Amino acid sequence: MNEPYGRIAFNDEKRLINVPFLETLDVLDPAQSSDKLVAVDSNDARSRPFNLLRAQIIKKLGPTHGKLIGITSAAPGAGKSFVASNLAASLGMLSNRKTYLLDLDLRRASVAGIFGIRGNVGLTEFLMGDDVELKSIGRRIGTTNLAVFPSYPAMVNSAELMVGDRFESLIAVMRALPADAIVIVDLPPIFANDDAILVAGQLDGVVMIVEQGVTTKKQLQSALQFIEPTPLLGTVFNRFNGGVGDPYGYGGKYEGYYSTKT
């Protein structure tokens, strides 16, 4: 049943969870974003690889009508959050799509920093069962069709949260979004913990980020086995030198992925 302001209510046994439609969210000025967000300007040559990736993702999802896509890597440091954020930004530039970006790398969340979102209450608190509405977490990026739902780094039992009732409700809410919506989920690296493996089973496909010269063939093969049977939508070579004129390689490395330093 439709709620006021175009929200649909789900009951997670304790409270109603409203679908956070893009139009209901607070707006964030894209000028606050960091220099890692390069896909918001279609005139910027650095946005081209993300526009190409956008086209491939839409093509892959077409026959299956899939909606939820995970972005991960075998090991830390491959730039998966950078790719997830810029792919989402590129998708958000389309007038016929609504894009939702979820940061589920709870222990080393970085999407908020890329977009310049400040706060301390995010998806972690929602998943822990706190009295937090998704609408209060999400931010619409300027006039684009992109909504970002950040997390903030916290040393929590993330695997437990990924199998909890609130996570099931989150997935149900995302699937209740209109047919034109695409949900990009930034996941932890496969070998950092078992979060990505647990979440992948709830998604329609996964994109694997591969760091040129660092990710080994064995790591990639093992990572792909772990996400089965979730379909692999493709692999992205990040920091790839060569090809079409200029080297595309972005994103920072994590040092001590699960250390207490942020």
Automatic annotation (TrEMBL):
SUPFAM superfamilies xrefs: P-loop containing nucleoside triphosphate hydrolases
Keywords tagged on the record: ATP-binding, Nucleotide-binding
Protein name: Chromosome partitioning protein
Top-rank taxon, per record: Bacteria
Coiled-coil residues: none
InterPro entries: Bact_polysacc_biosynth/exp, P-loop_NTPase, Wzc-like_C
